[in-house]
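Hi support team,

I've been running sequence recovery on a batch of backbones for a student project. Most finish fine, but this one hangs at about 90% for roughly twenty minutes before it completes. I'm not sure whether the input is malformed or the queue is just slow. I've pasted the structure tokens below so you can try to reproduce it. Let me know if you need the job ID as well.

Thanks,
M.K.
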């Protein structure tokens, strides 16, 4: 045990440095969200269409999802605390570069580097938080880091959008860079446990579960749900501006953030009460309905608030249910499968943003609801056969783990 762990055992308090890791999680999550709220301003300044500007979200998510397992494997050669400091520093610098970009290609390149940095930082924040506390307090430490990401959805994204509306999108990204700099300096000044370099699992081992059809089927729903959700979420700013004839949508993004917090809590509650598969089926139907009506319900402020809250709650609720489901399939490979689930989630985000952009160019932002609902319906079609299995309504899907 490190001195930090011994100290926390004596005082009964969690290490202060976990808050720095939670701040890092907040910054990383805010960066992936804030662009969505300032998309119209970026499009105007870069002299591109909103659909083309939306590909910043596509590329960020795609690079994040694809690079995470590769970079994590490569980073195992060095001490985790040093890797985190270096990655946060790069993340800060490239966000400054994004804020100063004057042409779209440069902005795109800086977003690619930011995605790589975030993909490397995110898993390290959780691993290092766990190393700062004794085993019986790891759950609380991990929750505190997770809260950073949740707060980013509730406050970071809307606040960044408000800053963009008041002073321009460059200030929004500059604020993200400043917060990343504070987190980096904090980690550097207060230090983290020096973790020895580990022999990380090779990429072939990490991807091995993808050769099993039942695991592919288990991962497929989150991909299609992500495609449907992000096809409309990525372009929520132009949709709301079109329907409500307003420029500043930051207040309405708070509704999505509050819904996300509610959904994160409800995911575990409904799983315990109704069973994971049945709960996931119900959530998918709710998501399908709200995606269909969202472009029309957002024509009034009251309708926008209600529909956006439900929309924001459904996605994290399903993510939690999905995590419960896949953990029951092969518990001995839980870490690998969870990593693949995260990568698949970001892949769905990337495809959804690209699909939404194509539809905005070809049809109209008002038609995105049907496209989103269709993708979610595919996820339902994949999940539905399992919901009819004996015991599928129970609190676990452990029977799946026995099949080959």
């Amino acid at each position: 045990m490190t001195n930090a762990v011994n100290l926390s055992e004596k005082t009964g308090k969690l290490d202060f440095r976990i808050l720095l890791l939670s701040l890092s999680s907040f910054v990383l999550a805010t960066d992936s969200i804030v662009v969505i709220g300032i998309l119209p301003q970026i499009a105007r300044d870069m002299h591109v269409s909103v659909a083309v500007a939306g590909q910043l979200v596509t590329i960020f998510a795609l690079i994040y999802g694809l690079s995470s397992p590769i970079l994590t494997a490569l980073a195992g050669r060095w001490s985790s605390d040093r890797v985190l400091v270096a990655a946060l520093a790069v993340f800060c610098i490239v966000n400054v570069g994004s804020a100063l970009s004057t042409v779209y290609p440069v902005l795109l390149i800086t977003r690619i580097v930011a995605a790589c940095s975030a993909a490397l930082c995110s898993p390290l924040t959780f691993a290092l938080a766990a190393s700062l506390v004794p085993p019986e307090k790891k759950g609380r430490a991990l929750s505190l880091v997770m809260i950073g990401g949740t707060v980013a959805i509730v406050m970071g994204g809307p606040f960044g959008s408000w800053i963009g509306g008041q002073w321009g999108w460059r200030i929004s990204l500059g604020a993200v860079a400043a917060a990343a700099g504070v987190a980096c300096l904090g980690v550097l000044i207060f230090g983290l446990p020096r973790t020895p370099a580990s022999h990380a699992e090779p990429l072939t081992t990490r991807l091995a579960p993808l050769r099993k059809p039942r695991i592919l089927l288990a991962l497929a729903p989150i991909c299609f749900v992500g495609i449907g959700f992000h096809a409309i979420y990525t372009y929520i700013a132009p949709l709301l501006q079109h329907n409500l004839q307003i420029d500043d949508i930051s207040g309405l993004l708070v509704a999505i953030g509050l819904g996300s917090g509610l959904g994160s809590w409800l995911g575990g509650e409904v799983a315990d009460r109704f069973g994971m598969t049945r709960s996931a089926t119900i959530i998918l139907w709710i998501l399908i309905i709200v995606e269909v009506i969202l472009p029309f319900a957002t024509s009034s402020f009251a309708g926008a608030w209600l529909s956006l809250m439900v929309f924001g709650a459904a996605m994290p609720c399903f993510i939690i249910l999905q995590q419960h489901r896949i953990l029951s399939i092969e518990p001995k490979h839980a870490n690998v499968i969870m990593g693949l689930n995260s990568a698949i989630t970001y892949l769905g985000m990337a495809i959804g943003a690209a699909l939404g952009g194509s539809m905005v160019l070809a049809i109209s932002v008002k038609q995105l609801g049907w496209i989103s609902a269709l993708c979610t319906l595919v996820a339902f079609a994949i999940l539905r056969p399992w919901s009819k299995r004996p015991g599928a309504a129970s609190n676990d899907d452990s029977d799946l783990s026995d099949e080959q």
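--
Follow-up from support: It reproduced on our side and the slowdown came from queue contention, not your input. The first helix runs from residue 3 to 11. No action needed from you.
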